[in-house]
Design brief:
heterotrimer; A alpha+beta; B mainly alpha; C mainly alpha; A: alpha+beta; Immunoglobulin-like; 2 domains; 5 helices; 37% helix; elongated; disordered N terminus; C: Four Helix Bundle (Hemerythrin (Met), subunit A); 0% strand; binds copper (II) ion
Chain lengths: 308, 623, 184
């Protein structure tokens, strides 16, 4: 390969060769990039506001989460659009086959750099305050609310044990978790073995179930619904807990108060009916934590959603 | 004088016979047996049964590691000196120079580069298996137990690749050249840091014979205490890799601080070298924390100890604090060097000075400083308390400011440049694109209200792949396409390079962009199976993933063919100004045919001011 | 091959800098370990902790720093016999330290076993320190051997400085370990 020699940009000649050829003085580039930025921002905001990327929302606390998420999306769009506008515009405008000369020696631009720094700092602070701090405090306040119902959830490799201590009802590895709509429910989470996590996608909030301690999460379901119709209604273990982690979920059904009472009293009467029929991920290759060496165990119980 | 080994007249070894690496394996095996027997003997004396897998492996490994090092060349080149005897230098010619305790930073850079490309490809292959399992719901190829093992191995290997590949390959090969130094500050430590890696690879392989492990790369307790013995190998491998990082970091930092050529003031230090300096400081300090966390795991496994078992008063969450105290800085160790590569490539391919050099350096320093204060943002769901949540949310969101300065420098550099879209430049521009997405989606995770639903879902998976692959690994390849001519004297093929780039760029985005949606819609991470409603998107992601995987075949083909018969590169094919280009490709043994002196800005493109550096040859009278 | 007259710092300066970096890294290791102690048990510690023995250990290590310093001084004055005596005394004190720690462990297992949080932390920290001390002993022994072979001359005097610096560092670490485990 021949050694290339590079033309030196002439600072006194305000228009370099390329710019003379293309008839621009640089200001036009700024305007054009600004226009591109505005277009990209408008398109982005249109997409963000016009589409719903989130699954069913069925809890009051989740509104805080979704609000924060949507706001962050709205803020992200112009930030991303700015960088992309410069990137796309520059590549389209100033790409060359082989550079015959150097570009203008702009090593810095005090105003622009400082402005960038100040604006990005202000933006970070703004995001910290809202939706960050405001949302966090709102959620903290929600967590303090006096519960109408307490549900104790004990995570066990790899299922959930549920009890309603106020009603004296305890269920080992139940087929589903039924909850009353509109009630403020405090879930007390713990684990008997490793760390698991509580997550019902429709309720949004997530909290770890850690052995040796009890963490609480408070949720007020706002919509009836069930796993059979919508898989956002499931209590999914969200912290890697070993072989059965993927299938460690408990279908959730949110029902009207009366129906909940009925279900609870039915459950409290005696051994739950029909529970053995549910295979909650205790299939062949999930039975033993210590035995993962067998990569070829049969796993016909792996199909999800059969239960629904 | 006598700052480096190469100047001394020590006898040379290693030019005939079996390569030293094989002797290392042999001595390592002997060491392992000695350690194992010693453990058995002590156990019998204390009244326990002679054999227990994990104690035997731990002690055996410590002895085996010592044997490995002595065998691979430490004995002749170093240890004899501790006994007051004469040492030798490992300096064979040809292919042999890569298979022993070679102290030349250029050899070590290539050892690192080739080793880590190989590890990257293997770990990438594991990802292909993972995506095959996730093609459909239900069991596809290996079911949950196998999936968790493969996922864990993929995770740890890729983390090690991301932490090490760029500093290992280019920090070693290019950084001393950029400084105008004739080698690293401590050539022996440099070799030592590399030769830690084969034992790491052996441990990861061996772990698979005792069932592997299934905690992912994070090894959270109590799972990591109660599961199968592969977890022990995980911990030993991770600690060994950490030792290598510390050793390498001492070397990097000393080299940058003390080995700069005359005239290289801090304002003339190339940006890549800055990134290596800060990376070094982070690894130097924080790697120790992960060693503590993993040592506690090992002790709990062997002695049934009280660190993490709550029944005995242990604290499972403490592990996460210590682990992330290291591992959050570590994610910047994965990304900073690649951001350095990005900002190193943009000026010559835009034919403009690096925009806002001071801001960019400030950004790198700011990211590093803040990285030590954000670890608990991984723990917003563990109940760390309201005050902690507020504090860690603040520090984490603050990181977006110095990160923004990197973007400032990048967009300012390409603005009004002469954009020369060769393969290295394409990779660099792709980093800007990818890292933008990675950075912005990270803000969602720093925001506690949003994080409580995104935590531990595919949103996180997508986010960190956008940063660690989209910036880190793209930076690795940007660096390869940029510096390959310097390291081998030959150009990579431009057409194959562009095919690789476009396949990788498209494949990458098509694979990881849909994962954000998956995470939002209920796909938690580290699962072998998912809800049927997510099947369509998952199938698409898998197909895109295979396409991404296939792109590396073009790279591999390009690298192998071009290394042997690529077009000769000449000294400076890109017309760059930094010092590594002011010498031959590849450089001579002591890097420069003379004495480099730094006289100006490393990125003075477009000016006719003084060159960045001149090399005073001994015969030349230019002084 | 001609040697270039690179204006790099001297061997000693370079190595001193590297060693201090290594020490900073090690200091971080112990800082994390000591922080772990407070995480587990706050400021509580078992009654059975043998504080007088801890003081004896501290006195031994401080004296070992002193003897090593004497050895260094002797070496600087060209007194090889004095250096060797200093090294031997220091190593002796180091070995005595390790033996006492061994006895302390044996006694401690009965009072605060490794299955209690304080015990686990105690053995983790003192064990890590003991391993460092053992490595320091190996360094001193290596210096002793090199001196005996007559290769620890003026040009190699840095090795002595490095070994001594590392040893003093391990002593300082012990002081912080002692403060954390026995005093607070
Ligand atoms: Cu789980
Ligand atoms: Cu982090």
């Amino acid at each position: 390969m021949t050694t290339l020699t590079w033309g030196v940009y002439d600072p006194d000649d305000k228009l370099s060769v390329l710019e003379r050829d293309m008839g621009s003085d640089g200001r036009r580039d700024i305007v054009a990039t600004g226009v591109l930025w505005a277009i990209l921002t408008a398109l982005g905001e249109w997409a963000v506001l016009g589409t719903n990327m989130l699954p069913t929302l069925a809890s009051r606390q989740g509104e805080e989460v979704d609000g924060a998420f949507r706001l962050l999306m709205i803020y992200s769009v112009p930030v991303m659009a700015l960088v992309l506008a410069v990137l796309f515009y520059s590549v389209a405008r100033w790409r060359v086959e082989t550079p015959e000369e150097d570009g203008p020696p702009i090593a810095d631009h005090k105003g622009f750099s400082r402005g960038w720094f100040i604006v990005s700092s202000a933006l970070a602070l703004l995001l910290f305050i809202h939706p960050g701090l405001t949302g966090l405090l709102a959620l903290a306040e929600e967590a303090e609310a006096e519960p109408d119902l307490v549900v104790e959830l004990t995570a066990v490799q790899w299922h959930w044990d549920v009890s309603f201590p106020e009603h004296g009802v305890t269920m080992e590895n139940p087929p589903e978790l039924v909850l009353p709509v509109g009630a403020t429910i405090r879930f007390d989470l713990t684990s008997t073995d490793v760390i698991h996590a509580f997550w019902v996608p429709a309720f949004r909030l997530k909290q770890d179930a850690i052995p040796g301690q009890t963490n609480s999460v408070t949720i007020t379901p706002t919509e009836v619904g069930s796993y059979g119709e919508d898989d956002a209604f499931r209590l999914q273990c969200a912290e890697l807990c070993g072989t059965g982690h993927a299938r460690m979920f408990l279908p959730v059904r949110v029902v009207e108060q009366a129906e909940f009472q009925q279900w609870l009293s039915g459950a409290g009467m005696g051994p739950m009916e029909g529970m053995e029929g549910m295979d909650m991920g205790e299939g062949d290759d999930m039975g033993e934590g210590g035995d993962g060496m067998d990569m070829s165990g049969d796993g016909d119980g792996m199909k999800m959603g059969d239960e629904g | 004088m006598a700052t480096t080994i190469s100047g001394t007249g020590a006898p040379t070894i290693g030019s005939r016979g079996l390569p030293f690496a094989f002797r290392g394996l042999l001595w390592g095996a002997v060491g392992f047996l000695l350690g194992a027997l010693l453990t058995a003997a002590i156990r019998v004396l204390l009244g326990y049964p002679a054999f227990a897998l994990e104690p035997v492996v731990v002690v055996g490994y410590v002895f085996g590691l010592s044997g490995w090092f002595l065998g691979v060349g430490v004995w002749e080149t170093w240890a004899k000196g501790w006994l007051g005897r004469e040492t030798a230098v490992y300096k064979p010619e040809g292919w042999r120079r890569y298979f022993g305790f070679n102290m030349d930073h250029k050899v070590i850079g290539i050892q690192y580069g080739v080793t880590f490309i190989a590890l990257f490809l293997i770990a990438g292959l594991l990802a292909m298996f993972m995506r095959a399992e996730l093609m459909e719901t239900g069991r596809t190829i290996f079911g949950p137990a196998g999936y968790n093992r493969v996922m864990s191995l993929h995770g740890l290997m890729m983390v090690l690749v991301a932490v090490t590949a760029v500093p290992g390959a280019f920090g070693n090969y290019i950084m001393p050249l950029q400084l105008g130094a004739e080698d690293m500050a401590f050539p022996r430590l440099n070799a030592l840091s590399y030769w830690f890696w084969p034992p790491v690879a052996i441990l990861l392989l061996a772990s698979q014979f005792v069932g592997g492990w299934d905690t992912g790369w994070t090894g959270y307790v109590p799972l990591a205490v109660v599961n199968r013995p592969g977890q022990l190998f995980y911990a030993l491998a991770f600690i060994t890799a950490g030792l290598s990082s510390v050793v390498a970091a001492v070397n990097f930092v000393t080299t940058v601080v003390k080995m700069r050529a005359p005239g290289m003031t801090w304002r003339r230090v190339p940006i890549f070298t800055w990134s290596i300096l800060l990376t070094g400081i982070l690894s130097l300090l924080f790697t120790q924390a992960v060693a503590v966390a993993l040592t506690m795991t090992i002790l709990d496994r062997i002695f049934g100890g009280a660190f993490f078992d709550p029944v005995m008063g242990g604290l499972p969450v403490l592990y996460q604090h210590i682990f992330w105290f290291y591992s959050h800085p570590a994610v910047y160790v994965m990304v900073l060097p690649s951001l350095g590569v990005l900002l190193e490539i943009l000026p010559p391919f835009s034919r403009k000075p690096l925009f806002g050099y001071k801001w960019a350096v400030g950004g790198i320093i700011g990211i590093s400083a803040l990285s030590a204060t954000v670890w608990a943002h991984h723990m917003f769901t563990t109940d760390i308390g309201l005050e902690s949540k507020i504090g860690f949310m603040l520090t984490t969101e603050a990181i977006s400011v110095p990160t923004g300065l990197i973007f400032l420098s990048a967009v300012g550099t390409i603005w009004r440049g002469r954009l020369w879209l060769k393969t290295p430049m394409l990779f660099a521009l792709a980093i800007v694109f990818n890292f933008l997405i990675g950075g912005v989606t990270g803000v969602f995770l720093s925001d506690v209200p949003a994080d409580v639903t995104l935590q531990d879902t595919f949103w996180v998976v997508a986010h960190f792949h956008y940063t660690i692959v989209g910036a880190g690994i793209f930076g690795l390849f940007a660096g390869i396409y940029y510096w390959f001519p310097k390291m081998t004297g030959r150009m990579l093929d431009e057409r194959l390079g562009k095919i690789h780039f476009w396949m990788m760029f498209l494949g990458f985005n098509l694979t990881f962009l849909p994962m954000f949606w998956l995470g939002l819609n209920g796909m938690n991470r580290r699962i072998a199976d998912y809800q049927p409603s997510l099947e369509g998107v998952n199938t698409f992601v898998s197909l895109a993933g295979f396409f991404l995987g296939a792109s590396f075949l073009f790279f591999l083909w390009n690298a192998i063919v071009s290394w042997r018969k690529g077009e000769p590169a000449g000294d400076n094919p890109w017309g760059s100004r930094t010092l590594e280009w002011q010498t031959t490709s590849p450089p001579p043994e002591l890097n420069f045919d003379g004495e480099p002196e730094v006289t100006g800005d490393p990125y003075g493109y477009g000016t006719d001011g003084p060159a960045h550096a001149v090399v005073h040859t001994e015969t030349g009278g230019d002084e | 091959m001609t040697a270039h007259a690179h204006a790099h710092p001297g061997y000693r300066e370079l190595h001193r800098y590297g060693l201090w970096l290594f020490i900073a890294s090690e200091a971080f290791l112990f800082a994390v370990l000591l922080a772990v102690r407070f995480f587990f048990t706050g400021l509580e510690k078992p009654e059975a902790l043998n504080i007088p023995l801890g003081i004896v250990l501290t006195v031994i290590l401080v004296s070992s720093s002193f003897t090593l310093h004497r050895g260094e001084k002797a070496a600087a004055a060209g007194d090889q016999a004095g250096l060797r005596l200093g090294l031997l005394l220091t190593m002796g004190l180091g070995v005595v330290f390790l033996v006492i720690v061994g006895f302390e462990w044996a006694a401690g297992f009965a009072e605060f076993p490794a299955s209690t949080p304080y015990g686990a932390v105690f053995y983790l920290i003192t064990g890590t320190h003991a391993l460092h001390l053992l490595s320091g002993l190996l360094v001193l022994y290596s210096l002793y051997l090199q001196d005996k072979r007559g290769v620890l001359d003026e040009a190699n005097r840095w090795k002595l400085e490095a070994g001594a610096l590392y040893w003093h560092f391990i002593d300082v670490i012990w002081l912080s370990v002692f403060t954390t485990l026995y005093v607070l």
